[in-house]
Write a structure and sequence with these properties.
Length: 251
């Protein structure tokens, strides 16, 4: 499920960092090379991959949280959610369905009308779905995370994320990572996404070391766990408060 999938995908980032460090340390496997390869492209790739996987995770986990409403007993309809959540879901669904561009490409009028009609029919039927509204615009930064989590009814997402993160955070076991300052969660995520944007849009070399990126992988694992738990607590508490049996969650 969302966090388990994300954890597996982060292993790919770790593999890139392992390769970069092996090249730097002149691992015997690379002894046949006349010159030491430049590790900067590998580090840049690790940053881009880390952000891409986190972007995929936040979309997956919010979608999963909304689906849990439909699995409650008895199931929720759109009109059973708090009014502010209803308005958010309806507005974002219709805006996404009717937008002139999607993924940077212009859309034909008939496609927009068809999507708008489908979205409207889903709303009238009381379907709980964000559809194309669960989109990050390629920027899975702090504001995007908060906006998507609000679709499930979470108030002050980062306050709740921080509380859970601090209560369950485990320091890295690796000697090279121990003692590294975590800092503010939103700032760290924002800096990571900013670094990704530098690589993706300018092609410039990044100043981060393998150690710093590896620490960000550790940070991302714990951040994902905190986001998952906050969403789970929100959806389950709303189900219980409404006299329903919450749906089962899988990580």
């Amino acid at each position: 499920m969302p966090t388990q999938k994300f954890g597996t995908q982060l292993d790919d980032v770790e593999d890139l960092l392992d390769l970069a460090e092996s090249i730097t340390l002149r691992h015997p496997a690379f002894s046949y090379l006349p010159n030491r390869p430049n590790t900067s492209p590998l580090l840049a790739g690790a940053v881009v991959l880390l952000c891409a996987r986190f972007e995929e995770f936040i979309k997956d986990v919010v979608t999963y949280a909304l689906e849990r409403h439909g699995e409650a007993a008895p199931e929720f309809l759109l009109w059973d959610l708090p009014e502010r959540v209803q308005v958010l879901l309806i507005t974002k669904n219709l805006n996404a369905a009717l937008q002139a561009k999607r993924f940077g490409k212009l859309r034909e009028p008939n496609e927009r009308i068809s999507d708008g009609k489908a979205a409207a029919e889903g709303i009238v039927a009381g379907k709980i779905s964000a559809g194309h509204a669960i989109e990050t615009g390629g920027n899975p930064g702090p504001d995007t995370v908060a906006d998507l989590m609000k679709l499930t009814g979470v108030e002050k997402p980062w306050l709740q994320i921080s509380r859970h993160f601090e209560a369950h955070y485990i320091e890295p076991r690796s000697v090279e990572l121990s003692g590294m300052a975590l800092g503010d969660l939103q700032e760290r995520l924002g800096e990571l996404v900013g670094l990704r944007n530098i690589v993706a849009h300018s092609g410039a070399r990044i100043p981060s070391s393998p150690t710093e990126i590896r620490f960000n992988v550790h940070f991302a694992r714990h951040l994902a766990d905190a986001i998952y738990q906050v969403l789970k607590d929100q959806v389950e508490s709303h189900a219980r408060a409404s006299g329903r049996v919450p749906a089962k969650w899988s990580k």
